[in-house]
Amino acid sequence: MSETFHAGDLLNSLIELEKTGHAFYGEAAERTQDEKAARLFRFLAGEEAKHEQLYTDLAREFRRNAPSEEPVDAEYGAYLDALLKRNFHFDDADFGTLNAALRFAVSLEKDTLLYVGEIQNVLGNQKADLFKTIRNEERKHLRMLAEYRG
What we know:
By secondary structure, the chain is mainly alpha-helical. It is built from 5 helices and no strands.
């Protein structure tokens, strides 16, 4: 039996990724002794929470419209799922040093940017302006992390 994925399902995965980011940044802000890094992590935690709510609202909207929605090919859905699974968990090693936390943060932001692009690919022109704004915000997060790392 072939499994299909709908936009609402994919957005639910993105919600989980944002929850992971929020938890990671909150924990990183608490653990670091560097006040500048703590401010950056707190800001990014807030951004993740904002995006989580955005995706929650979008998923709700897409679930309401599910009958007209085209399912995503199972193989493509599995690819997107695999992309997310590697960033759903973090552990103490990701907080071992400030550099380790920053590396994980960069990886998280890059994968989120990639995943958002893939979801937009699935959705076509639906919500194009919103996804453009989100991609720009994710790029800003990457720039902020890169500038901090120097």
